[in-house]
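During the second half of the funding period, the structural biology subgroup turned its attention to how the target accommodates small molecules. The most pressing case was beta-D-glucopyranose, which had performed well in the primary screen but for which no bound structure existed. We therefore specified the complex as follows and requested a full 3D prediction, including the ligand pose.
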Amino acid sequence: MKHNTALLLLLACSFSLYAQKSSDKKIKPRNEFIPELMAKMTIDEKISQLVQYTADGTVTGPKTGINYIEEIKKGNVGSILNATSVKYTRELQELNLKNSRLKIPLLFGYDVIHGYKTIFPITLGEAASWDLKAVELSARVAAEEAAAAGVHWTFAPMVDISRDPRWGRVSEGSGEDTYLGSKMAVARVRGFQGNDLMAANTVLACTKHFAAYGAAEAGRDYNTVDMSERVLRETYLPPFKATVDAGVGTFMTSFNEISGVPATGSKFLLRDVLKGEWGFNGFVVTDYTAINELIPHGFAKDSANAGELALRAGVDMDMVGGIFMKNLKKLLQEGKVTEAQINDACRRVLEAKYDLGLFHDPYRYNNEKREKEVIYKKEHLEAALDVAKKSMVLLKNDNNVLPLRKEQKVAFVGPLVNDEWNIIGSWAASGDRYGYAVSVQEGVNKVVTDKGKVTFDKGVEIVDPRRDMMQAALDNARKADVIVAVMGEFENMSGEAASRTSIDLPGIQKEFLAELKKLNKPIVLVLMNGRPLTLNWENENMDAILEAWFPGTMGGDAIAQTLYGMNVPSGKLPMTFPRNVGQVPIYYNHKNTGRPYLGPTDPEQKYKSRYIDVDNSPLFPFGYGLSYTTFSYSNLKLSSKTVNMNGSIKVSVDVANTGNYDAAEVVQLYIQDNVGSVTRPVKELKGFEKVMLKKGEKKTVEFTITPEDLKFYNIDMQFTAEPGDFEVTVGGNSASGLQDKFVLVK
Ligand code: BGC
């Protein structure tokens, strides 16, 4: 953690370096500059600011046939996505400024989700670090590199809460929990935007996808969402709100409908909640062709109607679909939208451009020298390694098979053992795969100098059913002391449009593991995947399981260092791992029901809320993760047994490192509100702290609970805390811990 702070400081120093530039024009303050500019703009020029097209480099959605170069030549474009590099963004900016009567710069957006070139673990993996400094650092490095390559604006953070591992996009989010997700979202906004957007090494962030996209029915991407306003506000919206409070510059709408209204046409979400209640001053971009999709949703009858509904709902920029360009002027003439609505949207977009310094110098992100110096900088690779190490979650470690010892003979097998493609995960921006990403094999070879001690064989592919490589791998495994199987999903099995109905290890990987098992050697399973998997069989048959997610450019080093004990795993699951897919949606903060099942010792086994074929509990609960050391919790203390509406309670607990390794532990605090005017979850995360403990060391960890932490939407939809009894649990995961109680009084 010290390491992170030092790196963050180093990177923060470079903010100011780029803030004021000699090439900057002296221009008026924003509140004078923008109105004066807008007073000169025609309606066509205003509409063009609300239009975004994609360059043809990266493909992130369906084709529309719109030629962005021709549109820029016509002065019809406010923003371009998927154009990167100093050279190319400069070319497009020059073309734009030549054709823009009032010299309004283009805004370049790109999906910089977990790194630009230096790739960090997938977002879900980073969330598993429970380390806010690490996550902020990752976003900071991503911004540094993206900004150096001409990118002004990232479409991140993705803050969708999801309780469904079938949904491929869980890889892009921070998991199932609102509290953890909100903290992660804020850390990312801070990292991307820094404290000075005007600095040329910060980028505008974009909170997405607004809203409830992660609740798609049956985990199928783009599918319908139907939920109560209470659940929406309590579970799904808080991470979005947290980023507004943290000053995020933009928002992206989601593809899904919520309770019958597509989010991109939802006045309730965009005007009432986001811009109204929350006072959001930035601009709202749609998701890719999401205005066009109001037609197949059955919400708009044609493209003009779709444009009308979207603008009126509060959309400011049309991503890719060309609907605003085609229709807004006519809609204005027909009185279906107002000039005030267009002006408001235009002002918001122009203000963002101003805040980034683009009116001061439209080329402030276009410095070839900087691009060369910054990308893949040593410090960035170090940061990527650091964060990857912190993201690893140890799910099982029988007989302390891990860490490995260098004198052991180890057979590394599995389709991902020498992989440089999948290891950086999906949505890896401009990250290079072959030749750049460090494979597990490369990482292990750096750690183990005696090459006679290690062998590397694929054995099988991820989905290819061929078995012709298996025998060679088994032969090497037979001669080893320990087998390490590196397996998982293809990177493109998670991410957008990558939902699965089975979340087992794909292909014949399990069959290969069963063959390995027959050799009677300890087996360590190292997993790379973009979602929780069902690992029942693996848990029963493997000796150790290390969840490495897709750990990024330095992933192979991070895994090797973890396997050999140079890094002690400290990650905790940000999402529940089910026993089987039939349990989904499964999440720790569920309701109790009127017939709660107490488990196998429950005297009543029949008429209970349970399955007859599998236990209710997950395989690995939210917040779970082992270490090479052990921790003990004791001495839970509450500063008082009652608290009033203006008071607070201090909760303290002693955590001791009782094993043989210096290590970090994520101490988690959960609260249950026993009785409410509406029912409350069995527990909810309300605090966590990642503490470093040397072996033998004990620390007291303290949390403060205030009535603010106890608030929820009551029966009258007021956000309030209700007097009554509360349960506090503090521990190392969501399924166990020390408990006490307190009472909230009026
Ligand atoms: C995705 C967004 C992404 C956008 C632009 C869409 O398909 O849903 O997350 O930001 O494309 O690439």
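Two results from this model are relevant to the next phase. The radius of gyration is 26 Å. The mean pLDDT is 96.
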